[in-house]
Specification:
This protein is α/β, with parallel strands linked by helices and 425 residues long. It is 29% helix and 22% strand. The chain is built from twelve helices and 19 strands.
Length: 425
Amino acid sequence: MTAYLIKSVSVVGAAPTDLLIRDGVVAETGAGLTAPDATVLDGTGLVALPGLVDLHTHLREPGREDAETVESGSRAAALGGYTAVCAMANTSPVADTAGVVEQVWRLGREAGLVDVQPIGAVTVGLAGGQLAELGAMADSAARVRIFSDDGHCVADPKLMRRALEYVKAFDGVIAQHAEEPRLTEGAQMHEGEVSTRLGLTGWPAVAEEAIIARDVLLAEHVGSRLHVCHVSTAGSVEVLRHAKARGVKVTAEVTPHHLLLTDAKAETYDPVYKVNPPLRTATDVAALRAALAEGVIDIIATDHAPHAVEDKECEWAYARPGMLGLETALSIALDVLGPQWDLIAERMSRAPARIAGLDGHGADAAPGVPANLTLVDPAARRTIEPAELASRSRNTPYARMTLPGRIVATFLRGEPTVLDGKATK
């Protein structure tokens, strides 16, 4: 294993120092380090963050390898500065058995670009009728700890309670896609002024807020852990704030696109802006940004959702919801938050690693810590060209936008997966 000496790098915004990486860990830190056997990297002007961790990634394999594979998604993640991603269960077949989650886990290990941690389905086939094999997935080689029917809400309160009770035994987490389905039938975008003007069926904010309110009460009653996926409304923020003040074991995520884009994008009728939950209003965006800074929302998660051309380049009503996110998330965070490095490290690495129970991830560079880290050039700006993305899909809402920050290098247990902004394999 090659040793690396990174000279004059800022660790999470602190004063420049040297980092020596050897045998998969940060062996030494300090000024003026030397190591004759090490490959030297110039870290001047760069910031070293703990490797990013994404709690919400769609890798599409098995079943939709035309849109993404575990390998291509892992490469996109590494180029985005990630060292671990949690792969959602809405594959084909659905990841609702030990066999399927182990398949995804092994494909991630074979790719070797990021740690791929499968998320298991809550219900069989994501159908909301009966619990999936939660215990078997938890006991599998993949050691699943997060379960979600993302894309579908666990709408039955009795089933949701049973799921929360079941995973409590092994400190698992139910990650809920908060959407009351009876309030969103035929919905095409956020319900509001823009949807009325465009004549598109609206997705009301209360459909999200009602499920979150119900589920925090269930989680409080059971004493179990709840995670709320892709929070998108100001009302949801208030429900979460109240729940956290009462000590409910609830965490929440927000996506980069919900921090930046609004429902006004739908006026173009470009299906790249169709997503679930939908883009909301400027008022919602402001509330989400404030909640992220405050800690009411714990993490940024990409909801990276690649789609084949035929599923996005069509009429709005027929387009699949979802956007790419892995290769642009850190840039959006910098654009929204500015260079608040400690906050970015907390929201994009430390907190998601804690929620997912990913040992070895989410730790700032220090002697003895696994060398999972990313080097960022905050002074660089880049224009997003869809054809240059590593994902197999091209449905990015940031096409031709110029964004701050560039990932210079990513290390997974001391091995570079990205160097000089390019994947190493």
